[in-house]
Structure formats: structure tokens, C-alpha cells
Amino acid sequence: MKTLIVDYGMGNLQSLYRAVEENGGHPFISQHPSELRNASKVILPGVGAFSNAMKNLKEKGWVDELNRVVKEGGVPLLGVCLGMQLLSDKGHENKLVNGLGFIKGDAVKLIPATNNEKIPHVGWNEVNLIKEHWLFNNIDDNTDFYFVHSYSIQLMNSNDVIALTPYCGTFVSAVANNNILGVQFHPEKSSKSGLRLLENFLKYSSA
User: Fold this and answer.
1) Residue 154: strand pairing partners
2) CA–CA distances in Å: residue 146 to residues 29, 47, 62, 193
3) Rounded to the nearest 5°, which phi and psi values hold at 93?
4) Distance of CA 132 to CAs 53, 136, 140, 161, 174, Å?
5) Which residues of the chain, if any, have pLDDT below 70?
6) pTM above 0.85?
7) Which of 143, 149, 136, 148 is nearest to 198 (CA)?
8) Distance (Å, rounded) from C-alpha 4 to C-alpha 146?
9) Which of 44, 47, 52, 105 could form a disulfide with 155 if both were Cys (CB 3.0 to 4.6 A apart)?
10) How would you class 100 by CB atoms within 10 Å of its CB: exposed for 0-12, middle for 13-18, buried for 19 or more?
11) Structure confidence at residue 94 (pLDDT)
12) Which residues have C-beta within 8 Å of that of residue 135, sequence separation ≥ 6?
């Protein structure tokens, strides 16, 4: 049961690798889209700009293979931080860019609701579960996770929302659509609760 961590040049690869390994998983970091066919789980990380990330994914051949293996083949995928935003239809950072289109919605910039709210949103903040989902099994509602981001997904389908976080009003901090999941926070930097979430993902079977 191998977990492929997508290496497209933008992401916390080693910290995710160690976190998956700590949970008894069998991670491997790959720069080769063809290796998706050998994976039982996929993690799409991301740090940086949406447009650069999509450019890299396209140029390195990941987009078509992710569609084939994840969207059509049903292999579970977890998008982390920018990786979650890339699941959306479009990103609005710097210029309008098409995303993977796995989750209906756009990645838009956070807008401060008070003078005390700074962008990027950095640090620990609570995750409010709005419905039960196996990804958060044995994780309490309102648990704090670690965030570093300036954008979030504005969803078209509220059924895809698992959790919200209070900042800039509220933003979507976790999504799920069948085998496709995303978290805006960094589970690999979120102590025991983050490791538990990764454990839940690794245990999941789409069969």
C-alpha cells in the first residue's frame, strides 16, 4: 500500500514523507507521473503561487495522469495547503489560471475582516467541523491545526465542505468529494492531530 507524494518542485516533501512513515505508511516521493499507477494513495503538497504550481504540473505531465488515476480511477488523493487550492477550477493569484477542476470552486485571496487580521494567515487556528467525515475520525471539533496561506477555496457546492476556520470571516479549511480530499492547513506540522488525520487518510479504502 504505497503513498505517492507528488514532486512537481513546490512542496514540503520531506516533512510529509516523515509524517506518513511515522503513521506506518509506505511513502515514496516521485517526479514521474507514470508512477501514479503504482500508488494506493496520493498526496499533492504545495507551497507558493497557484499559477507556478499549475505550470509545473502541466509541464511535468502530472495533470493528465492525475485525471486518469484519481478522477477516473478513484485512487484517494489528499491536497495539502496549495495542493488543496489546486483541486479547484481556477486560481486568482496574479492572473486567472485553470486548476485541476476536481472540486467545484475558485481559489481566492483572503480579505481581512478586522485590522488585527494579517495576510498571510500564519499560525495555529481552530478547524470547525460542519459535518462528520472519516478524515477527522477521533479528532475533536474545534481542534487547532497549523496554517500558512493567503488564499482559500470559495466553493460552488457546499456539500463538498467538511470544515471551516474563523479568519477573514470564515474560510473553507477542509473539503471532500468522494475520493478527493483537501486540507488548507499543514497536517505534517500540526502535532498529534495532524498525524491522526494522515493516519485516517492512509486507512481509507475507496473500495
Assistant:
1) 106
2) 23, 14, 27, 10
3) -85, 120
4) 31, 8, 11, 11, 12
5) 205-207
6) yes
7) 136
8) 23
9) 105
10) buried
11) 84
12) 162, 174, 176, 181, 183, 197, 200, 201, 204
Helix (H) or strand (E) holding 129: strand 121-129
Quote the CA–CA distance of 179 and 93 in Å, as a whole number.
27
Distance of alpha carbon 117 from its chain centroid, rounded? 23
What is the set of domains in the chain, with CATH numbers?
Answer: 2-203 (3.40.50.880)
Q: Provide the 3-class DSSP secondary structure of residue 177.
A: strand
Three cell numbers, residue 145 = 491545526
Q: How far is CA 94 from CA 47, 52, 173, in A?
A: 15, 10, 22
**Residue 89: Cβ-neighbour burial (10 angstroms; 0-12, 13-18, 19+):** middle
